[in-house]
Amino acid sequence: MTASDTDPLVRVRGLNVTFAQKRLLGPTRSVRAVHDIDFDIGRGETLGLVGESGSGKSTTGRALLRLVPVESGSVQLAGQELTKLRGGELRKLRAAMQMVFQDPYSSLDPSTTVGASITEPFRVHQGLSRNQAWPRVLELLELVGLPASHANRYPYEFSGGQRQRIAIARALALHPKLIVCDEAVSALDVSTQNQVINLLEELRAEFELSYLFIAHDLAVVRHIAHRVAVMYLGRLVEVGPAERVYERPAHPYTEALLSAIPVPNPQRAGERERIVLHGDLPDPADPPAGCPFQNRCGYAMDICRESMPPMTEVADGGTVACHLQTTGPRLAGAVLRDANLSVGSGQ
Ligand SMILES: Nc1ncnc2c1ncn2[C@@H]1O[C@H](COP(=O)(O)OP(=O)(O)OP(=O)(O)O)[C@@H](O)[C@H]1O
């Protein structure tokens, strides 16, 4: 099957990932980390994937790259089904899809110069010697804003932001189509975060890259995502154009995540009520009945405890899995609060 330029680069349908978790006490249990999710990523598009720790974001990113076993569902890259690939075909795929992690220390060998680390993809995938790959390494370092002369330095000689640039340089080596950035800027201070995000943005525009940009914090994603997908307990609960999601969240969980972002303009500070989510994310091995968010949702109705809401279209863009969309008032911030539904508000 071939894909036209207008088809999405990535097409995920009905993706499920289940882990067997061994426990010290008690039998091994089965945890569905990703539950029947669908999404697309366009060519040159950045999809932000947000949600609390444990919601299944990293597992989703890893499943795209086949770094965790896919239980069922379809993942296509440019029209090619990836879930059935083996051996050499899988290695080719790994060149087209790369991952940048939160902690580049884990991906950069501390005892190897960064230049030598960046030669690795050329050696493994293209059979080049270190000398043959070296000119490309120098180009890549300059592309990510580092002097080529730093190629002979070791990871510990760089700051966190510089190490992340090196990880990005290595990810770019084989001209990928998609980069999964898994909390790639989360450990950096805000100004370094902005610099790395600006770099990612420049590279996206120059090479028509697509990103799955994973972060637990909606504030980080705001500056880079064209669309945002919100994940809760292994499920996507809302997907939509970034502007709409930030201005008019359609899911109470998205609204709560947004309410935790400080409002930069003090004159607007009173406009957004802080919504405190009580309790932790439920145990994914023992999810609540009905909607997975119902036991923490200030708007929960009887139906929410009984049945899983289907994904439905939001009038001004995207989709949401929430009974409010079909039953009762739709969530549109102030509208719901005016309707005097209970919102757990904090300080
Ligand atoms: N290799 C694994 N073996 C067993 N369980 C796993 C494994 N990886 C993830 N899980 C479980 O899957 C669920 C989702 O984890 P995942 O890391 O994908 O979430 P996340 O949203 O990325 O959170 P975080 O930001 O903390 O990484 C969690 O319950 C986690 O314990």
From TrEMBL:
ABC transporter domain boundaries: 12-258
One example GO MF annotation: ATP binding
GO cellular component terms, semicolon-separated: plasma membrane
Localization, UniProt: Cell inner membrane
Record key words, sorted: ATP-binding, Cell inner membrane, Cell membrane, Hydrolase, Membrane, Nucleotide-binding, Repeat, Translocase, Transport
Reaction catalysis annotation: glutathione(out) + ATP + H2O = glutathione(in) + ADP + phosphate + H(+)
Family statement drawn from the similarity comment of this UniProt entry: Belongs to the ABC transporter superfamily. Glutathione importer (TC 3.A.1.5.11) family.
Subunit: The complex is composed of two ATP-binding proteins (GsiA), two transmembrane proteins (GsiC and GsiD) and a solute-binding protein (GsiB).
Protein name, entry field: Glutathione import ATP-binding protein GsiA
Lineage: Bacteria, Bacillati, Actinomycetota, Actinomycetes, Pseudonocardiales
